[in-house]
Amino acid sequence: MILLSVIREADVVVVGAGNAAMCAAFAARDAGASVIVLERAPEAECGGNSAFTGGATRFAFRNVDEVREVLDLTEDEVAITDFGTYTEEEFLEDMGRCTQYRCDPDLTEIFVRESRATLAWMKSKGVRFDPMWARQSQKIDGRIRFYAGLICATWGAGQGLVESLHKIAKKNAIPVLYETAATGLIREDGAVRGVVAETNGEPIRIGARAVVLACGGFESNAEMRARYLGPNWDLAKVRGTRFNMGDGIRMALDAGAMPFGHWSGAHAVGWDMNAPPFGEREIGDLFQKHSYPYGIMVNANGERFVDEGADFRNFTYAKYGVEVLKQPGMFAWQIFDSKVNHLLRHEYQIKKITKAEAPTLEGLVEKLEGVNTARCLETIAQYNKAVRQDVPFNPVVLDGRGTAGLAVPKSNWANVLDTPPFHAYAVTCGITFTFGGVRVSPGAAVQSVAGRDIPGLYAAGEMVGGLFYFNYPSGTGLVSGAVFGRIAGTQAGKHAREHAKRSGVSEERR
Ligand SMILES: Cc1cc2nc3c(=O)[nH]c(=O)nc-3n(C[C@H](O)[C@H](O)[C@H](O)COP(=O)(O)OP(=O)(O)OC[C@H]3O[C@@H](n4cnc5c(N)ncnc54)[C@H](O)[C@@H]3O)c2cc1C
């Protein structure tokens, strides 16, 4: 038996210090529990993938009053803006459509129906949300119109979110132990009673009445990516943290948890070809290149391989990284002309970018490294001929301005590539997070293979399986993590109190 060097205790131990974990910690504290948070990363790199996000956060709303439960808006902003509506039914339908109707109906319904209330709760704790003017709206006929149901992001994007969450933790005296990685669960009589962790190479034991695992998926782990996602996934760039090694999933499975969800699936996007192997915090999500609906994408053979305008980018970007991974050499070039410059997202303006530009299409295609030049020019010529110019272009609706007669169609926002200078951007596959995880109950309790709650064990965030399959509507990672984090923390806190009562520990002693 190993003699562990330090022993600490809390009612609830939360493993991870990203969005889901911190929401769990706050909720457990609200439920009257003492809480310790464990973070594998050093303080400067804390917050997991949550810190790398653009902070986009999807929630259901029926009118501007409901929008205002989350966003602080001036009367002037309300007057000039059309937020539209995004009902729970629309949110549920987007989840169903994106996941090929495989998402778990009960879990999905919970996070959709709790989305607005949970963001309002975060706001009440001190997290600020702002309208996504730059990324999700366009000025049309003098009014600002939002589209695709996504209107809001955390202030300061992911870094701002994580800073706020950690400030709130400090204010509430919730300790975060940095550089402390949970390595196993302590179990007594079938119940989870704490974790074994490693800090500075030393094993420690932290006793608890309940544990919330919120320590991400296995996206940072090349071996697990290859094992579960398949060939070449070990070569994908990781968009975010290097610390999500699948530890939480492994610990839960070791404790008898039921594997659940799309284990061979992941959220992955077109990501700068020359981006570093893991995310860079100063760049955040800006290595992504998400304006492809306004241009075309070609592979090494000089051929198009997806319908760039199949839907708003919010509903295609998370599955198109997989399509790029499948192309020869695992890369693609996105090609635009200057007509659409004003529509390109701000990630096309950063300095660290793999870009080619030329005054002619011939000159541009010559510069596309690794691409069959002759075939690419043919592809562009065929595409240009196929654009339906009788239909007006409108970027805030599915405008139906597609192509006619191409083997790989483009369904919306097709424009002839004819306005110099022409520009192109090289992307490869960047993995965001993995979809496979463990099964949780509606109360976020981790379920065993026998279908029962494992006493004292809860999970939230990326490691919850059953929400995403094949694809993902943008802005749902943070909100689903927040909803299940809050539920997990509340239930873990209650469980801890009940356990303390049963063990005869007085309130004062706790
Ligand atoms: C570049 C990028 C952009 C994104 N943009 C958005 C967006 O705009 N909107 C959106 O909704 N989603 C976005 N996402 C997805 C989003 O980041 C995730 O869905 C969400 O942040 C997951 O939260 P989480 O708390 O489950 O995991 P994380 O935030 O990754 O937190 C996991 C935590 O666990 C810690 N950890 C791991 N192993 C251990 C261990 N053994 N012991 C202790 N701690 C451990 C990690 O260090 C980290 O603190 C984006 C992701 C990336 C990478």
Taking the alpha carbons of the first and last residues, their distance comes to: 29 Å
The main β sheet shows up as: 8 strands, mixed
How many DSSP-defined strands?
A: 22
CATH topology of the largest domain: FAD/NAD(P)-binding domain
| CATH homology-level superfamily of the largest domain | FAD/NAD(P)-binding domain
Kindly provide the name of the CATH class of the largest domain: Alpha Beta
Top keywords for this entry?
binds flavin-adenine dinucleotide; about 500 residues; 22 strands; 2 domains; single chain; globular; FAD/NAD(P)-binding domain; alpha/beta; 8-stranded mixed sheet; Flavocytochrome C3, Chain A, domain 1
What features would you describe in this structure?
The mean pLDDT is 95. The chain folds into two domains: 7-265 and 435-502, FAD/NAD(P)-binding domain (3-Layer(bba) Sandwich), CATH 3.50.50; 268-431, Alpha-Beta Complex (Flavocytochrome C3, Chain A, domain 1). The chain is globular, with a radius of gyration of 24 Å. 52% of the residues are buried. It has helices at residues 19-30, 64-67, 75-80, 88-98, 105-113, 115-125, 133-136, 157-171, 222-229, 247-254, 317-325, 361-366, 373-386, 477-502; strands at 7-15, 35-38, 56-57, 81-82, 129-131, 137-140, 143-146, 152-154, 176-177, 180-188, 191-199, 202-213, 237-238, 259-260, 266-272, 296-298, 332-336, 355-358, 422-434, 437-438, 445-447, 453-459. The chain is built from 14 helices and 22 strands. The longest helix is centred in the last third of the chain and has 26 residues, at 477-502. The protein is 28% helix and 22% strand. With 510 residues, the chain is α/β, with parallel strands linked by helices. The strands form five sheets. Strands 1, 2, 9, 10, 11, 12, 21 and 22 form an eight-stranded mixed sheet that branches. Strands 13, 15, 16, 17, 18 and 19 form a six-stranded mixed sheet that branches. A three-stranded antiparallel sheet has the order 3-8-5. The site of flavin-adenine dinucleotide has 44 residues, from α1, β3, β10, β19 and α14.
